[in-house]
Amino acid sequence: MFCAATGFGGTINTGTGRFDPERLVPVEDARRIKVYFNADRSEQLPWSFKPEQKFVSVLPGETSLAFYRAKNEGTKDIIGIATYNVTPDRIAPYFSKVECFCFEEQKLLAGEEIDMPLLFFIDKDVLEDPSCRNVDSVVLSYTFFRARRNKYGQLEPDAAEDKVQESLGFSGYEHAPKVEDRGKTD
Length: 186
Prior knowledge:
- The chain is mainly β.
- It is built from 2 helices and 10 strands; from the N terminus they run αββββββββββα.
- Strands 1-7-9-5-3 form a 5-stranded mixed beta sheet.
- It is elongated.
- The relative contact order is 0.22.
């Protein structure tokens, strides 16, 4: 929450009140900024996931619409959730998403393919920040993971605990608590 509110570490602003109509006026005499799109996914998520466009060029203050496409290539319905980041991280406080598929978990039925919209803008205040003076390209990256819990707060039936830990990068550690030992007290 801290990172989303401050833009710290390349985390984009969301729901910060910066969506006032006067903020969404393109600065016509400003240079355009190229926003490149990247898509990754966890190995534990049998989806294909890709941006529908390589990049868009936007003016500060101008809203832009982009799309990503995801397909569940597995044989079971799966809920996924996306994390995001922007590079260089100094532009993150000015990169704001109005609507995004990453705001909620996404459930794809087995074999289902969907287009997922993203509506964003780069705040015109970026023009007043000396550290962003030479930024003319940005990379917006998303990574999809299998959601650990479904919308009812229950563990997904097809996501065994050891697979969840593996997808998070915690498998193979000698001192990692074993699933059967969790919750036991001596």
